Amino acid sequence: QVQLVESGGGLVQAGGSLRLSCAASRSIFNMNWMGWYRQAPGKQRELVATISSIGSNTNYADSVKGRFTIFRDNAKNTVYLQMNSLKPEDTAVYFCTAFSGGSSYWGQGTQVTVSS
Questions:
Q1: Do residues 51 and 34 touch, judged by C-beta distance below 8 A?
Q2: How many whole angstroms separate alpha carbon 49 and alpha carbon 83?
Q3: What is the dihedral of CA 43, 106, 111, 54, to 10 degrees?
Q4: How many helices and strands (H and E) does the chain possess?
């Protein structure tokens, strides 16, 4: 079992930046991969970015490439999502997720609102 706690969401103007954090209750070193999803009102949850444990390979949704960066700090058991050049369409609840040992884990989500 692992608990994930997101933080860093909030209200920001278009063009601004936010950094989301996802703190895990245990070491993330051996997790297969971790990532961020988001869900806007009335829409399905969608993948934003993932990062692997080995090699820290990253993957991004086309809509955030070049603006968002996912990275991890194993010493702090934390994964981050740096979001720059935010757009109103980035408004959503952002969820941290982890996949390890055949199981997936989710945080409770953090709200990101981008005003125009």
A1: yes
A2: 11
A3: -100
A4: 0, 11
Mean pLDDT of 8-36: 94
Contacts of 59 (CB under 8 A, 6+ apart): 35, 47, 49, 50, 51
Name the percent of the chain lying above pLDDT 70.
100
Question: Other C-beta atoms within 10 Å of 50: how many?
Answer: 20
Q: What is the pLDDT of residues 50-101, one digit of tens each?
A: 999 877 799 999 999 999 999 999 899 999 999 999 999 999 999 999 998 8
Query: What was the pLDDT predicted at 95?
Result: 98
Distance of CA 8 to the CA centre of its chain: 10
Q: Over the Cα atoms of the chain, what is R_g? A: 13
Q: Of all residues in the chain, what percent are helix, strand and coil, respectively (each to 5)?
A: 5, 55, 40
8-state DSSP, 101: T
